Amino acid sequence: MRVHLIRMNKLNLKTMNPLMKYNALMKNIYCLLLTLFFTNFISAQELKVISNTEIKEVKLYQNGAMLNRTAKVSLNPGNYELVFDGLSPYINPQSINVKGMGDAVMLNVAFKQNYLKDKIKSKEVVELESLLDTFNYKYQQILNTTTVLQEQQNVLLANKSIGGANVGVTAAQLQAMIDYFSRKLAEVKDKLLDNSIKEKKQKEQIDKVKNQLSELNTRKNQPSGSIVVNVAVKTKTNASFDLSYLIASNATWYPFYDIRAKDINSPVELVYKAKASQNTGEDWKNVKLILSTGNPQEGGVKPELTTWFLNFYEPRPVYILQRANRPAAAESRAVPSTSPGVYEAAKQMESIPVQLNQNQLSSDFAIGIPYSILSDGEEYQVDIQSFQLPAIYSYEATPKMDGDAFLTARLTGWENLSLTPGSANIYFDGSYIGESYINPGETEDTLTLSLGRDKRINIKREKLKEFSSTKLFGSNKERSFMYEITVRNTKNTLAEILLQDQIPVTQNKEIEVKVDELSGGDYNTENGTVKWKLKLQPNETKKLRLGFTVKYPKGKQVAGL
After folding, report:
1. Which helix (H) or strand (E) holds 288?
2. At 436, phi and psi to the nearest 5?
3. Which of 1, 253, 300, 421 has the most CB atoms around its CB within 10 Å?
4. Which residue, 348, 345, 346, 367, is CA-closest to 357?
5. What is the DSSP string of 99-152?
6. 177 or 264: whose pLDDT is higher?
7. DSSP class of residue 91?
8. Taking the model in full, what pTM does it have?
């Protein structure tokens, strides 16, 4: 170990009093000891790079991820700078937490980005580079063949003349030469044409591989992150370290659902899934995955109100100043509130074991099997939970808008399953019906899903002209409307149908609306909707009538009639 000494200041002891002599001497000794301490500490510090850290757990948020890593290091007595490298460059330095086990003392923890470290090629990149070499070799062979064929063509074209200036040829010789020349030239040109096609196809393959390599290298050509830990070791020890840190971007997940109904006598299966993706610069291979609805980047500090002052507005001169560009505020997602517990009627089906942990602010789904999510930006499907929910099936129809009846399912028991907003794929009787959307924050206690059209229920809505008229009464005009709705059940089973229509609602006191006929329908005076709940036996037909009269000044027109 090298020791660096400093020269003490030369003291003129003869001109100093005893107190001054003592202070000056102690000052020089202190400087000497301090310099020796830091010089020995720095010179004795050993650099140790650790690249084999293992990811134990990933908590993936809808914006960001929290990672837990472990590493074991054998250390001799001394001071070390431990560099845990190969990490994401998007680590939030304030979130880093390092815990150590062993006979060592941690002195400092820091985060650094490495722009110079050679990138390790993935298996996919290595395979594509090998394939590109093969394609380039074949392409060069094609070019070489083309060159040889062009030379053959040039030789044939350069030797078209036969005989000499004073030597003639017979007709038979001339014909034989023409036949030979034509045959050979046609063969060469055909081969050139074939080679041109091969060259084009080979070039297309090379371009495809180059484009794929370019995309992969663009993802990989980013700096790596390193967590640097300074430790002092007293005795030889096998130390273990736990590292946790937050990656603030380039990692996300969002929910989606499969909703399956076998028939109208069976419960509905609700499959809760997620699509996860990340491009953080580090692959997550066979890790324990937790999907969280929380967002650690939103901040947990309650806003405080300041005094709201009022005063008269006094215009002031406006000066035009050049302002620096200010970054826009980061967009945050609201986390829907959830209630603890599981609805008793909802039966969880056998699936991947998932542990649900709920707190006051979020829900965490700990997936029971390891998952691998590579740093490639691709979406990976994760199965969360599967439930059977009780459902009430019925038909709904709005003949004014559509002449078909739609089979619907009203689900109950979903509101306490810690669902988050997401799209849902609807399946009925093994067939894909369409896409819907589940928003627990806006949906009522009963979730209504449309399962598709049923053409076996015939619905017809027509205007009855004999009961519809226009009349004048002094300065007013009255227009009467009458509609007849015919519903027929051609199925061989009972059909319960919720039928909907409407009566216009006035927004002007000069316009009067009078209801003439409802056929027993439930009329909502606020929005004008009319509903009928019908039960139709097999092959039964029912007719309903809806009539109303609109009265308004005859010199005006009413929009919407």
Report:
1. strand 284-292
2. -130, -170
3. 253
4. 367
5. EEESSEEEEEEEEEEESSSPPPPPHHHHHHHHHHHHHHHHHHHHHHHHHHHHHH
6. 264
7. B
8. 0.58
